[in-house]
Amino acid sequence: MVVRVVPVQREEKLTWVERLYLPMIIKGLWVTSRHFFRNLWGFAAGRSTAFVVQYPEERVDHADAFRGMPVLVGLGSGLPRCVACGLCEFACPTKCISIVPGELPDHGIERFPEQFQIDMSRCMFCGLCEEACPEEAIVMSREVEIAAFDRDSLVYEKEQLLVPEPMLKRRLEFLRAEYERTQLSSEDA
Ligand code: SF4
Ligand code: SF4
């Protein structure tokens, strides 16, 4: 099920009607009431218009901008794209990333994460690690089903975090488009 994304254009300055607040409160109540009665009518007529997902049989196909669990981009060789620079570790506000760098002389790789852990019990899905990464090696996935019986099990190891690149194609393309858009708008400014 694809979620419809409604882009909201917000004016920076409020009009005098908006500054009065009361008309906007009435407008908000009108929108809520309209949805309520439309859904009620649909329910009574047997044609539900409410957004209902029969979880877990049905899953929501989140928008590309959705930020779920951070994961590591896996290359075709099975190795992570990460070069263990530590920028994500530094950027993480909850300090839930822990990296131990290593070397893979057999593969001609000078630096790779020998160990890469994320403590999901502390992660707040903020996406700062993704923003900080210069290699597109850590991205926010759509995964949100994280459950465990104890906190130790929520410390995800590199092997659990690795996701093959083709499976992250939509997110990576979204990120590239976003970088391009912000670059163009900063050039225009
Ligand atoms: S999403 Fe935020 S909290 Fe989670 S690992 Fe990345 S930077 Fe840290
Ligand atoms: S910022 Fe990217 S390349 Fe650097 S350690 Fe983190 S995931 Fe690896």
Q: Tell me the strand percentage band.
A: 15-25%
Number of helices: 6
Q: Major sheet: size, sense and barrel closure? A: 3 strands, mixed
**What is the second-level CATH architecture of the largest domain?**
2-Layer Sandwich
Please state how the strands of the largest beta sheet are arranged side by side: 4-1-6
Fraction of residues in H or I helices: 25-40%
Name the helix and strand elements from N-terminus to C-terminus, one letter apiece. Answer: HHEHEEHEEHEH
**CATH fold topology of the largest domain:** Alpha-Beta Plaits
What general form does the structure show? extended
Structural class call reads alpha+beta
List strands and helices in order, with pairings:
Blueprint: H1 16-19, H2 22-44, E1 70-74, H3 87-91, E2 97-104, E3 109-119, H4 128-132, E4 138-140, E5 155-156, H5 158-161, E6 162-164, H6 169-188
Parallel strand pairs: 1-6
Antiparallel strand pairs: 1-4, 2-3, 3-5
Bound molecules: iron/sulfur cluster (2 copies).
One iron/sulfur cluster (SF4) binds at residues 70, 91-92, 94, 96-97, 118, 123-129.
Top keywords for this entry?
three-stranded antiparallel beta sheet; binds iron/sulfur cluster; Alpha-Beta Plaits; three-stranded mixed beta sheet; extended; alpha+beta; single chain; 6 helices; 17% strand; 6 strands
Question: Could you characterize what this model shows?
Answer:
This protein has two domains: 13-47; 70-188, Alpha-Beta Plaits, CATH 3.30.70.3270. Helix content is 32%, strand content 17%. It has helices at 16-19, 22-44, 87-91, 128-132, 158-161, 169-188; strands at 70-74, 97-104, 109-119, 138-140, 155-156, 162-164. The chain has a three-stranded mixed β-sheet with strand order 4-1-6. Strands 2-3-5 form a three-stranded antiparallel β-sheet. It is extended. It is α+β, with helices and mostly antiparallel strands and 189 residues long. It has six helices and six strands, in the order ααβαββαββαβα. The model has no long low-confidence stretch (mean pLDDT 90).
